[in-house]
Design goal:
Elements (H helix, E strand, L loop, with lengths): L1 E3 L4 E5 L4 E5 L5 E2 L4 E7 L18 H9 L1 E7 L4 H10 L23 H11 L13 H7 L3 E6 L9 H6 L4 E4 L13 E4 L2 E4 L17 H7 L9 H15 L5 E6 L24 H26 L6 E7 L35 H4 L18 H4 L3 E4 L8 E8 L3 H9 L13 H5 L10 E4 L6 E4 L3 E6 L4 E6 L15 H11 L4
Parallel strand pairs: 5-11, 5-12, 6-14, 7-8, 7-11
Antiparallel strand pairs: 1-2, 2-3, 3-4, 6-13, 8-9, 9-10, 12-13, 15-16, 16-17, 17-18
C-alpha cells in the first residue's frame, strides 16, 4: 500500500484494486472508480472555448478542464484509425506489426447475417492478434473485475468483426464495424453485440453524407431529410445512458468513440445559439452545431452520472484522436479541397504548413498551430486531454508533461493494480493525476507517425521531425516556437543526434 500526499489524497490498495480518499486525514474506502472515456473525432483544440474559441461555446467540456487535470503537451496520432489502435494497445503508431489495418468498406452492404459472415471468414484469418499475455485496454479493466462497453466507431482498423470485438475484451458493443460507414450519420444499420441493428426508416442512399463545398444545390441536398429518420448520435447517447444505468451497481469502463465532429457535415438541426449569426455560412453553422452537440452530449452524460450519484466515483476522460480537419468550404471564404490557402498556394507537410488563418477557417480550429490531420506538425497530432475525478484528481491543473494516447493502459493498470507482463510504449501518468509528482521520469520520448515520416518529442519539449522523401530532419523547441517555424539543427547538433537515434528504429 502506497500513500500519496496532496491536498486531496488517496491510497491505492493493490490487493483490493480500490482507491481510497483521505479528505480529513482519515481513511474512507470507496468503490473502484468507474471510467468514462470520450474520444472525439477530428476536434481541433481551437474548437473548444477552453482554448479561446469565441464563436462556439463548449461549457460542458470546459467544465472538465476546470474540475480536472489537463495536459498541454498531449499527443494522439495523425488520423483516427491508428489513434484508436495505439490507444487500445499501448503501442505508438510508428511500430510495425502490432496491429493490422484492414480495408475499409467491406461491411458497406453487410446488413444481413449471410453477408456479414462472408466478410468475417475473409477477415478473421488475416487478423493480427497480440500475444495472449499482452493486454488491451478493455482487458485491463476485465482483469480488475469491470464490465466493459464500447459505443460508436470501431475500436481499430478499417473493418472489424464481431469475433475481434469479443477478443479485445468488450462485454457490450454498439456502433459501426466499418471505418467508411462510421462517417455516415443516418445509417441503415448498425451492430449491437452480435446482432445487426436495423434502422429501416433510414433509406437515404447517401446515409447522410454531406457535401463540403457550399452551394445552393448542396445545401438543399443536405437538408433533404427524406429517408433520414434516425441520427446515429441519438442512438449512441441512448445506449451510453442505458449502459450506465444498467451497470451502476458494478464497476464499469465505458468507451465512447464518437463520430463528432468528423465530416461529412450532417446535423438534424442548426443549434439555436448560432442559427441567426450573419458572420457564418450555412455549412459553417451546421459544422459548429456538430461541435455543440458533442458538448451537449458530454453534459448529458455527466448529468446522468450526477443523478445516479456516481460522479464522485467516476473518472471522466476526454480526448481527441488527432488534430484539426476542415469539413466546410465556401468560395472566397474558406478552403478545404484542394488543400490550398485563399490565394491558391498549396499547403505541404514540410515547407508551407496549413494554418487556419491562411485557409480562411473562421473557427481557427487548430488554435494557430501549424498543420492539420495526416501530418506530423503540432496541429496534426497535439490534442486536448483531461482527466476529471471529483475530489480525487487536482482541479484546474494543467501539466506540461509530454504524454500520449498510448499512456492510458499503463495508467489504468497502475490505478487498478493490474500487472502488465508485456512492456508497453506508454508510461503511467498516475503520479501526475494524483498530485504525487509534477513530472514523470526525467527522460521520456513520445513518437508520432505520418505519411511523410515520424517525429519524436522529448520530455524537455524538443521535437525532431523527419521527412523520408527528403531524408531531412528538423529540430524545434516547442515552448518558444508555437508554430514550428525555427529550425535549430545548427544551433543544437547534439540534441539532433540524440533524437535521431531515438527515431532510427522507426525509419
Amino acid at each position: 500500500m502506497k500513500e500519496l500526499n496532496a491536498n486531496n489524497t488517496f491510497i491505492l490498495a493493490a490487493s483490493l484494486c480500490v482507491a481510497t480518499l483521505s479528505a480529513k486525514a482519515e481513511n474512507k474506502a470507496c468503490e473502484r472508480p468507474n471510467v468514462v472515456f470520450i474520444y472525439a473525432d477530428d476536434l481541433g483544440r481551437g474548437l473548444l472555448s477552453h482554448y479561446g474559441q469565441n464563436i462556439i461555446s463548449t461549457p460542458n467540456i470546459d467544465r472538465l478542464f476546470k474540475q480536472g487535470t489537463a495536459f498541454e503537451y498531449a499527443y494522439g496520432c495523425m488520423y483516427s484509425a491508428p489513434a484508436r489502435a495505439s490507444m487500445l494497445t499501448g503501442y505508438n503508431d510508428c511500430r510495425q506489426g502490432k496491429w493490422n489495418i484492414s480495408n475499409g468498406g467491406m461491411l458497406k452492404n453487410a446488413n444481413n447475417y449471410d453477408a456479414l459472415e462472408v466478410v468475417e471468414k475473409q477477415l478473421n484469418p488475416t487478423y493480427t492478434e497480440l500475444p495472449t499475455d499482452d493486454l488491451l485496454l478493455p482487458q485491463v479493466f476485465k482483469k480488475a473485475g469491470y464490465t466493459t462497453g464500447q459505443v460508436g466507431k470501431l475500436d481499430w482498423g478499417f473493418t472489424a468483426t464481431r469475433q475481434q470485438i469479443r477478443k479485445h475484451g468488450w462485454d457490450y458493443y454498439c456502433g459501426y464495424l466499418d471505418h467508411q460507414r462510421a462517417h455516415v450519420f443516418y445509417p441503415s444499420f448498425l451492430f449491437e453485440n452480435d446482432s445487426i441493428l436495423h434502422l429501416p426508416k433510414n433509406t437515404d442512399p447517401t446515409e447522410g453524407r454531406g457535401f463540403e463545398l457550399e452551394s445552393p444545390e448542396n445545401y438543399k441536398k443536405r437538408w433533404n431529410m427524406k429517408g433520414k429518420e434516425t441520427y446515429s448520435q441519438d442512438i449512441f447517447l441512448d445506449r451510453i445512458l442505458s449502459f450506465i444505468r444498467k451497470n451502476q451497481d458494478h464497476p464499469f469502463f465505458l468507451y465512447h468513440s464518437t463520430q463528432l465532429p468528423h465530416g461529412p457535415v450532417a446535423i438534424p438541426k442548426v443549434h439555436p445559439s448560432i442559427k441567426n449569426r450573419t458572420d457564418l455560412s450555412e455549412i459553417e453553422k451546421e459544422y459548429a452545431s456538430m461541435v455543440l452537440m458533442l458538448d451537449e452530449h458530454v453534459g448529458i452524460i455527466i448529468e446522468e452520472l450526477e443523478k445516479l450519484k456516481l460522479i464522485e466515483n467516476t473518472i471522466v476522460v476526454f480526448s481527441v484522436d488527432n488534430g484539426h480537419e476542415t469539413y466546410y468550404t465556401t468560395d472566397n471564404r474558406c478552403r478545404k479541397s484542394p488543400n490550398r490557402d485563399m490565394q491558391g498556394k498549396r499547403f505541404d507537410a514540410w515547407e508551407y504548413p496549413y494554418r487556419s488563418e491562411l485557409a480562411g477557417d473562421p473557427f481557427n480550429g487548430n488554435d494557430g498551430l501549424s498543420g492539420k490531420k495526416w501530418m506530423n506538425w503540432e496541429g496534426s497530432v497535439r490534442v486536448p486531454l483531461v482527466f476529471c475525478w471529483k475530489n480525487r484528481i487536482p482541479a484546474g491543473h494543467t501539466s506540461k508533461q509530454v504524454v500520449a494516447n498510448y499512456d492510458l493502459i499503463p495508467t489504468f493498470a497502475d490505478l487498478l493494480g493490474v500487472n502488465l507482463t508485456t512492456p508497453k510504449d506508454g508510461v503511467s501518468i498516475l503520479p501526475i493525476l494524483t498530485g504525487d509528482k509534477k513530472e514523470l521520469r526525467k527522460e521520456r520520448m513520445v513518437f508520432v507517425n505520418s505519411p511523410e515520416g515520424p517525429a519524436v518529442i522529448s520530455s524537455e519539449h524538443w521535437k525532431l521531425r523527419y521527412n523520408k522523401q527528403r531524408n531531412e530532419y528538423r529540430l524545434h523547441y516547442l515552448p518558444e516556437d508555437y508554430c514550428e517555424e525555427n529550425i535549430l539543427n545548427d544551433k543544437y547538433p547534439k540534441i539532433v543526434e540524440k533524437l535521431k537515434k531515438e527515431l532510427e528504429p522507426y525509419i
